[in-house]
UniProtKB/TrEMBL annotation:
The keyword Metal-binding applies. The active site is at residues 39, 176. GO terms for molecular function: D-ribulose-phosphate 3-epimerase activity; metal ion binding. One of its GO terms (biological process) is pentose-phosphate shunt. It catalyses: D-ribulose 5-phosphate = D-xylulose 5-phosphate. This is Ribulose-phosphate 3-epimerase. It comes from the Bacteria. Belongs to the ribulose-phosphate 3-epimerase family. It is an enzyme of class 5 (isomerase). It comes from Psychromarinibacter sediminicola.
């Protein structure tokens, strides 16, 4: 099976109604989401607190696409099995979260989940050069992690460098933070294929007005596809 490099939209449920996750997840999937992005924050690696394995387990039955779990926690290793058992399809750890990213990625792959490695804005692409054979995804942060609704930081140079380093390996380049119909073409043209978007997908919509989610998702996808010549 050839590797799917088409543009994928992964709404971040950090911007969803926390009191209604089940219906919010189903609504974004019905409206065209390719993946569901789940931001796990520990109040230590990042200055915010969100979900643990029990919440991820509760989300699982509502996700029919791919549950893309972004771990902004340190340490990571003690929690890998719990997130895998909770049903994460992709588990992404930050290269800055500890001294043993190679071991962490091996441990994630050992659970059967797909492995991802994330880089904060201040971290160079070279930091992951020696683990590209251990991952299914590299996540380029385009905001300093911890909150939704922040302004986009231009990391197109880093994305292009990663695209070259990855070569023809089956590895997605995911971009996370400040992705909108205006910034999506920049990152897609640089080589990103998975676009996380929180505030840009959920703004103006709700479970009752889910059509707005669809419009927002299509606007981001079309802008990215147009920029990469993937538009139908
Ligand atoms: C930030 C998270 C992002 C965030 C994106 O630390 O990793 O996934 O939710 O939200 P927006 O798209 O609003 O920047
Ligand atoms: Zn994220």
């Amino acid at each position: 099976m050839s590797f799917d490099r088409r543009i994928k939209i992964a709404p971040s449920i950090l911007s969803a109604d926390f009191a209604d996750f089940g219906r919010e997840i189903r609504a974004i999937e019905e409206q065209g989401a390719d993946w569901v992005h789940v931001d796990v924050m520990d109040g230590h690696f990042v200055p915010n607190l969100t979900f643990g394995p029990p919440a991820v387990k509760a989300f699982r039955p509502h996700v029919s696409t791919v549950m893309d779990v972004h771990l902004m926690i340190a340490p990571v290793d003690p929690y890998i099995d719990a997130f895998a058992e909770a049903g994460a399809d992709i588990i992404t750890a930050h290269v800055e979260a500890g001294p043993h990213i190679h071991r962490t990625l091996q441990a994630i792959r050992a659970t059967g989940a797909r492995a991802g490695v994330a880089l904060n804005p201040g971290t160079p692409a070279e930091a992951v050069a020696h683990v590209l054979d251990l991952v299914d995804l590299v996540c380029v942060m385009t905001v300093n992690p911890g909150f939704g609704g922040q302004s986009f930081l231009d990391m197109t140079g880093k994305i292009r460098a990663l695209r070259t380093m990855i070569g023809d390996r089956p590895v997605h380049i995911e971009v996370d933070g400040g992705v909108t119909p205006e910034t999506a073409p920049l990152v897609a043209r640089a080589g990103a294929d998975a676009l996380v978007a929180g505030s840009a997908v959920f703004k103006g919509g709700s479970v009752a007005k889910a059509g707005v989610y669809g419009e927002n998702i299509r606007a981001i996808r079309q802008a990215a596809e147009l920029a990469t010549g993937q538009a139908a």
